[in-house]
Specification:
222 residues, mainly alpha, 89% helix, rod-shaped
């Protein structure tokens, strides 16, 4: 379960980083003159905010001392830039609001000219391509992650196998030492049994000799 939670957290972080890169590319364009880009960036930043909240939940579930604040700061910076672009557009519209029909027609012509710079079909194709690129990048990263995990698993297996071999060898050495110790104990016991009887007889003879000498000494002194 811990490995699954770690993988989910890594996947969520990777998705946020990829989407942040896409938003940064959009924000680098002229947002003040492109309403479609502002709407797209607004959608992405809202999705990023939701993803950051989910990432915090994953951190808490995995007992990780981390938070998604670093991503929130980047998201807030994008939102601030979007807000500034929207305010600039509103200000420009207010300043250039036509006072007569002729000005309105010129404004309409200008908006149509801006919109025709990139037809709707081309914009949809661009959005589709961006989504496909993002999905492909995520897929490649996931495959690379799976390959690294597989390699780590093989390395761990090799280490465990080497440890088992070392443990078996240590057990064999312990068994041989135990056998040698048993043989040495048996030899020592046999030697004690062989020479122990002689020492007992010698001590008994010594005691008897002392006893006889004491009797003789008593008789002489008496």
């Amino acid at each position: 379960p811990a490995a699954g939670a770690t993988m989910s957290t890594a996947r969520a972080e990777m998705n946020i980083e990829r989407l942040l890169n896409t938003c940064n590319r959009l924000a680098s364009q002229n947002l003040a003159e492109r309403e479609d880009l502002r709407e797209q960036l607004q959608t992405y930043t809202n999705h990023l905010s939701t993803s950051a909240d989910k990432l915090d939940e994953l951190y808490r579930a995995g007992s990780e001392a981390k938070s998604a604040d670093v991503y929130r700061r980047k998201i807030n910076a994008l939102k601030k830039k979007l807000k500034e672009a929207t305010a600039a557009t509103d200000k420009e519209d207010a300043e250039q609001r036509p006072k007569d029909e002729g000005l309105r027609r010129r404004k309409t012509a200008r908006q149509e000219l801006l919109q025709t710079d990139k037809p709707a079909a081309e914009q949809q194709e661009l959005n589709k391509q961006q989504q496909e690129d993002l999905q492909e990048t995520i897929t490649q990263d996931m495959l690379s992650m799976a390959q690294r995990m597989k390699q780590q698993s093989h390395a761990t297996h090799d280490i465990l196998r080497e440890d088992n071999m070392a443990l078996d060898e240590a057990n064999q050495i312990t068994d041989r030492n135990s056998e040698m110790l048993n043989e040495a104990n048996a030899k020592l016991k046999a030697q004690l049994e062989e020479y122990g009887g002689c020492w007992v007889w010698l001590m008994m003879l010594a005691v008897l000799a002392v006893f006889v000498m004491m009797i003789v000494f008593i008789k002489i002194t008496a």
